[in-house]
Structure formats: C-alpha cells, structure tokens
What we know:
Elements: E1 4-5, E2 11-15, E3 21-30, E4 35-42, E5 45-52, H1 53-59, E6 63-64, H2 110-113, H3 130-149, H4 163-174, E7 196-198, H5 204-208, E8 215-219, E9 222-230, E10 236-244, E11 247-249, H6 255-261, H7 263-271
Parallel strand pairs: 1-6, 7-11
Antiparallel strand pairs: 2-3, 3-4, 4-5, 8-9, 9-10
Amino acid sequence: MAQQHLRLGLGxxxxxxxxxxxxxxxxxxxxxxxxxxVEWFEGGETKGKEVEVETVLALNxxxxxxxxxxxxxxxxxxxxxxxxxxxxxxxxxxxQQKPLTNIPSxxxxxxxxxxxPVQTPSEPAKRKSQCVKxxxxxxxxxxxxxxxxxxxIGEIDPSNPNWEFAQMIDDYRxxxxxxxxxxxxxxxxxxxxxxxxxxxxxNKREKKAKTVDVLTLPSRDHIMVHEPKLKVxxxxxxxxxxxxxDYTFDESVxxxxxxxxxxxxxxxxxxxxxxxxxxx
Length: 280
C-alpha cells in the first residue's frame, strides 16, 4: 500500500479507549500539540476526538507525518547516501585499529571501568492535551453518576434471578457516551409541540422483588429500553430500543429542572396572550 502524509480528509484507523479499532477521517491538524482531530459516524450522529500523531502512526503503517512538521524524523523514509563510493571509502589504518590499551585509567569513565550501564536521560513525559483532559473529566463524572443512580458495577447480586440481564445492561451502559440534560448549559428551545419523558426511580417494592432497571438515558433527547430476550437454545440476550423525545429527564433531576424545560415556556406563552395546554 502506498504511503501517504497526514492531511485533511485522509481516512485512517483509530483506537478507542475501550480497545475498539475503526476507521475515521482527519478533520483538523494541530502542529503545536502534535495531534490531529478525527471524526466518524456512529449511532446516527457524528463523533470526534483528538488523537496524538504518534499513536496514529503506530496504528497505520502506511501513513507518514505531515511533510512540514518537525520532530518525526524517525518516521520519514531515509534517503540512500550516494556519497560513499568504493573510491572514497578507505579501510582503517593500522593506527586507527590499534586497541585502546594504553589509555590511563584516570581518563576512563567510571561507568566503563565498573561495567555499569550508561544511563541516558529518559524522554520527558508527554503532556496531555486539553481534549484528553476533558475526556478524562467526563469519564470521571460518568462513573460518579452511575454510582449515585444505579447499582455499583461489580456488585450485582447473584441471588437475583435476573442478574445475568442486569450484568448485560450494566456492560452495555459502560460502552455509551452518556451526556444527560444539564441545568446550566442547556438552552430552552421554542416548540409548538413539546413531548418529554421523566424516568422515576425504582421503589422499595421493586427493589425487594429484585427488579432490574431496564431504562437508560444516554442523551438529552433519547431514552433506551433494554428488553431481555431468549434465543431458541435459551441463550440470553438484549434488544435495545431507542426512542426520541424533545427532552428526557433521569431519576436524579430536580423538579426545578423539569419546570424550566416544560411548564415555564407554557406560562410565558400564556402571559404573552397565547393559548397553551399541558398534559401530564
């Protein structure tokens, strides 16, 4: 396969944080950070991330760094040296081949006299880019939210007759990029018709019956229903159904947030002389 330099619009392979490798397209080059921005289409939406150039070069053997970037000489093809011809190449003279046995011991390095390996300064640790720091922060907040609103990972009760389905649902949630509705950053949109859904927490009776939570809210306007299924050979699996709403609220949101995105726009319309109806 012909080698190509990194450029905008180039297709290549990337590795996700969970180990998956898939194709993506280069959408940005950042020479100061020695990184690139890539985008790909997944789950009905376009996603992107920032990747270090060295990681991309290690994963794609047919790709070279940008020709005008410095610091990647080891990845560039070496040019043959045509200056060494048989006429210009002379064997070492007897004086050059003389072993270094008469050098005073005071001039021999200490590491050489005691056969210690000579240590070279290690390369400085690479500084994390701002994008990587933001991704780490999102992961940390996601884990805290899961521990607050769901059963802790790895503590599923084996006595629960549905523990296998609970484990499958928990594993599936870990693969999602959960981005719920935010009270501070979201802007209330104008809708002629607005349909919302709010997930309630599992009550005491359901907890006592070891009921499994089969609802997941991956984003501000989607909700997923995990339907347990059995194959003909009694193998258990999940069917994940995705539904779209204008707003989705999980069991941890406050009444103030629900009011802000549902009832408050209706009241504003009424005070402005309009007519509005609310069904709950």
